Amino acid sequence: MKKNKNISDSLLDFLGRCPTPYHAVEYLAGFLRENGFQPLKESESRGKLNPGNYFIVHQDGGLAALSLTGTPLEESGLRLAGAHTDSPGLKVKPFPVRRKNNCLQLGVEVYGGALLGSWFDRDLSLAGRVSWIEKNNIFKTGLINFQNPLAVIPSLAIHLDRDANAKKSINKQKDLVPMLLLSEQDDSFEEILTLQIKKENKTADPRQILAHDLFFYDVQKPARIGLHEDFLTGARLDNLLSCFTLVQSLIHAPDVQNSLLILYDHEEVGSVSANGARGPFLRMLLKRLLPDSDRRQQMLSRSLLISVDNAHGVHPNFIDKYDPEHLPTLNNGPVIKWNANQRYATDSVTGGFFRALCGRAGVPVQDFVMRNDMACGSTIGPLTAAETGIKTVDIGVPSLAMHSIRETAGSKDCVFLLQVMQEFFSLLPVDALWKGHCQ
Q1: 193 and 249 housed in the same domain
Q2: Are residues 334 and 415 in the same domain?
Q3: Would you call 346 exposed, middle or buried from its count of C-beta atoms within 10 A (0-12, 13-18, 19+)?
Q4: Which has the closest alpha carbon to 10: 31, 29, 38, 39?
Q5: Does residue 314 sit in the same domain as residue 396?
Q6: Distance set, CA 24 to CA 129, 177, 190, 422 (Å)
Q7: Same domain, yes or no, for 205 and 105?
Q8: Is the residue at 230 inside a domain?
Q9: Residues 281 and 395 occupy one common structural domain
Q10: Do 203 and 100 fall within a single domain?
């Protein structure tokens, strides 16, 4: 029980420190470095990698980690796991400043499929990436995080909208505009960013702010809640819970085999980017590992990808929204995701493999299928499988309020996921299980 609590405490601390994909990657890269993983740069020319542990940061929002044993990759295959670093939210527009009735507001775009009603009346801060010109004319980029609550999107009072509880509609352009301050002065957003850059980076001296990727986020800390602390609540559980647990699993697996962990950005908006699952990041990495196409194809045929992204747990108030034979519940283990139209990449071979893997790890396992009369989401699994031909299974821990500003998961499920992924990264040649040798 104490071990479980320590793991969930570490997860909650990670979630609180990482309001954007860039902060999450920076945190995880530092954690990998502290645990003996060596940084690689994509721009460096390298020959064959020696046995050891490595990581690569890709365009600030993506990350790959490698554990190589020296066993030829074409013989062992790779144990691959993937997740995504981004979450739905409100992204600040390039020229965001609005002034109405002495209020300074910032216009935003909705990033991904955010549950918009949850963003009202929350204490919001701002974080992300900024580029600027230093006073010596050098181009620089860096991360900032205001941390303190500095904005709010107030709801319209019930007296002015009597139908709000019956039929609330949200206009993304005019209703979702955070208020920053009341001021008669001409407060410049560029000046606000400049001061924050200097505050967080004492050596920086910005002359001109050029551009930014900034996101609002809720400053309320993630927490363990419930009468018996059954639940974890917080922002960005989808899908930073998976990212954190996969990195922990790779680092602490008892006997790591040839393994590769990849974390993409931009999954919530379709993955079509240089840093998304439809981009070249993984393909380039695989070619770098094995330049020879025949040997690389041998490796891929002996590999398996576990795509890890939170699943829908059953909401007790809305059971009719779920398929009655597939009702995943919180704290009962990871969920295998199935879809006949390949919105998930699971099939009977890969799904059966994962079920056997859970059995080996002593972890309970569940299944999810969307109702036939409702649309099904997707993950990086089918995209990565289509790009590489690697056998793939889609799984994830069950959660509630997915894409809300504050989501809920079971406090035991990240431990279950950790245990099964440690088993996976330590497994002897993956293709042995295709032959039925599960013992």
Answers
A1: no
A2: yes
A3: buried
A4: 31
A5: yes
A6: 12, 26, 25, 21
A7: yes
A8: no
A9: yes
A10: yes
* Closest to 213 in 3D by CA, of 106, 128, 109: 128
Does the global pTM surpass 0.90? Answer: yes
**Is 128 a domain residue?**
yes
Domain total of the chain: 2
Pairing mode of beta strands 391-396, 206-218: unpaired
E-strand stretches of 189-339:
206-218, 223-225, 231-234, 259-264, 304-308, 311-312, 335-338
Instruction: Identify whether residues 425 and 300 lie together within a single domain.
Output: yes
Domain of 184, CATH number, reads 2.30.250.10
CA–CA distance, 139 with 177 (Å, rounded to integer):
31
Determine the Cα–Cα distance for residues 56 and 37; give it in Å rounded to an integer.
10
Backbone angles phi, psi at 4, to 5 degrees: -60, -40
* Integer Cα distance of 205 and 182 in angstroms: 28
pLDDT tens track, the chain, 439 positions:
555 678 889 999 999 999 999 999 999 999 999 999 999 988 876 667 899 999 999 999 999 999 999 999 999 999 999 999 999 999 999 999 998 888 899 999 999 999 999 999 999 999 999 999 998 899 999 999 999 999 999 999 999 988 888 888 999 999 999 999 887 666 689 999 999 999 999 899 999 999 999 999 999 999 999 999 999 999 999 999 999 999 999 999 998 999 999 999 999 999 999 999 999 999 999 999 999 999 999 999 999 999 999 999 999 999 999 999 999 999 999 999 999 999 999 999 999 999 999 999 999 999 999 999 999 989 999 999 999 999 999 999 999 999 999 999 999 999 999 999 999 999 876 655 555 433 3
- Which residue in this structure is represented by tokens 């740069």? 41
Of 168, 184, 218, which residue is a domain's last? 218
* Residue-by-residue DSSP string for 113-124: S--GGGGTT--E
Q: Which residues contact 314 (CB under 8 A, 6 or more apart)?
A: 322, 327, 328, 329, 398
CATH number at residue 391: 3.40.630.10
CA proximity to 347, closest of 309, 383, 394, 278 = 394
Say how far residue 232 (Cα) sits from the centre of its chain: 16
Burial class (CB in 10 A: 0-12, 13-18, 19+), 340: exposed
Q: Which domain holds residue 339?
A: 2-87+235-434
In this structure, are 168 and 56 located in the same domain? no
Tokens of 80: 């691959």
